[in-house]
């Protein structure tokens, strides 16, 4: 088995295509329903791989915790109201970039994404005294379909395109930087995600659109060719906006779980 180390940096400036970037981010992210049930402090569900802060290999334990969770996320976790992520269904994601060569507003909707559940957590760095966790992840293949609506300017050229898309991404690496705080509910301690930074890189991508506005005319064909041939440049420009969009979705997902699982359930030696 070849070990990959995640090097994506959330502070790097973009490497992104409007549609592709938001799609890729949507794939690494997910949505969730409002939390209802709360686990008992004495519970140890089968999907939890608990750790102890005093463990000399604590970071490795946290890595195993997230990897252990993967098969349960595929079908969803009913008691935490976490929906299945294979396929991952995202009704809508919106992003907007008002700076640089690519100034567009993009809306992606009715998305179906395959492959996000095949993630591997490669490395973890943490400081649980400050509730900081950095996760490096790898996803070998992601494929997405759905609808898109893009309006704005790319390289000073006006862009107006709407229709259906298909996209695939190979060898995706991502870095999630989680900043949490401790909260109490009825005297029980939980961790809440206050902020989440997301960075990503991809090795290869393919992208196709079916434009319903400029269908079967020269403009429509030119738009399709332009978006596909300039994907890397557009993704580069749109990466900050796309990273922000996925951070918002993934933050909601984490809190849906963390705020239902007492700290003592997954950190056995927490106070």
From TrEMBL:
GO terms for cellular component: extracellular space. Belongs to the TO family. It comes from the Eukaryota. The keyword Glycoprotein does not apply. PANTHER family: PROTEIN TAKEOUT-LIKE PROTEIN (PTHR11008). Keywords: Biological rhythms, Signal. The gene is to_3. It comes from Sipha flava. GO terms for biological process: circadian rhythm. The keyword Membrane does not apply. This is Circadian clock-controlled protein-like. The lineage of its organism: Eukaryota, Metazoa, Ecdysozoa, Arthropoda, Hexapoda.
């Amino acid at each position: 088995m070849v070990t990959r180390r995640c090097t994506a940096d959330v502070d790097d400036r973009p490497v992104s295509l409007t549609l592709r970037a938001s799609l890729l981010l949507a794939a690494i992210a997910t949505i969730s329903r409002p939390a209802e049930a709360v686990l008992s402090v004495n519970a140890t569900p089968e999907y939890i791989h608990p750790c102890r802060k005093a463990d000399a290999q604590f970071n490795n334990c946290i890595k195993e915790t997230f990897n252990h969770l993967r098969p349960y996320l595929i079908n969803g976790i009913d008691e935490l109201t976490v929906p299945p992520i294979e396929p991952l269904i995202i009704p809508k994601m919106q992003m907007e970039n008002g700076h640089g060569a690519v100034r567009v507003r993009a809306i992606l909707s009715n998305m179906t994404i395959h492959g996000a559940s095949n993630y591997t957590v490669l490395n973890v760095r943490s400081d649980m005294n400050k509730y900081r966790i950095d996760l490096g992840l790898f996803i070998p293949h992601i494929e997405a379909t759905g609808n898109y609506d893009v309006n704005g300017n790319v390289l000073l050229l006006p862009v107006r395109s709407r229709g259906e898309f298909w996209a695939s991404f190979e060898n995706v690496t991502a870095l999630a930087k989680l900043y949490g705080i401790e909260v109490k509910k009825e005297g029980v301690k939980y961790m809440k995600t206050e902020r989440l930074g997301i960075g990503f890189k991809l090795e290869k991508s393919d992208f196709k659109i079916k434009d319903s506005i400029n269908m079967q005319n020269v403009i429509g064909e030119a738009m399709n060719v332009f978006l596909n041939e300039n994907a890397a440049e557009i993704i580069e420009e749109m990466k900050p906006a796309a990273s922000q969009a996925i951070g918002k979705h993934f933050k909601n997902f984490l809190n849906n779980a963390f705020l239902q699982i007492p700290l003592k359930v997954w950190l056995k030696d927490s106070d």
